[in-house]
Amino acid sequence: MVLSSKASPSHVTASRSVRRPGFSVVELLIVCGIVAIFATLAYPRVDFGEYQVDAGARTVRTALQNAERLAVTERHDVVVSFDLVNKRLRILEDSNDNGVVDRDERVSYVALENGVRFKSPPAGLSGPVSTAVTGSNLKTLEGMPTIVFRRDGAASTDLEVYLVSSKELQNDWRAIQVVQSTGHTDWYRYLDNLWKIESV
Prior knowledge:
Blueprint: H1 25-42, H2 48-74, E1 77-83, E2 88-94, E3 107-111, E4 116-118, E5 133-134, E6 139-141, E7 144-149, E8 159-165, E9 174-178, E10 185-191, E11 194-198
Antiparallel strand pairs: 1-2, 1-7, 2-3, 4-8, 5-8, 6-7, 8-9, 9-10, 10-11
């Protein structure tokens, strides 16, 4: 008579350990350490001021474009004033076209990015300039340089607005230009002592 005994699977022990595919904690820590070393070497070389001033230029350009569109669609003046001290734009929906802030009119503000400010550049788009916001027929409203967009899309003046990062590096200057007759807006970078137009 032959007796056979079969062990149940729960009682079977492996003679050698089965290794699962993957990484150990030590391997992951080594990789993280190498990545951290490369990051600390590359971080000082990144100029965040340039990105901040690009964002500031886009912010100002977008605010001016939106003001022009609003004037056309709402069929009344939109007044944009540059608050140079507080680093922001004030946008007035002038529903009665009188050029002043009335109680029932909507006023909104658009702030510049952190680390960006209005400042007169080393050279202007069309020659020397002495202020950060300039134009041939620029008005002053409550002590702020002001442009008015009319219901036909035209502006009250041609306009140049200059921005720079807090570091004021050579390539950190930006300009926003408005054409008076059409209200068209472009922005520029100051690279290698020349203003170059940006497409976006």
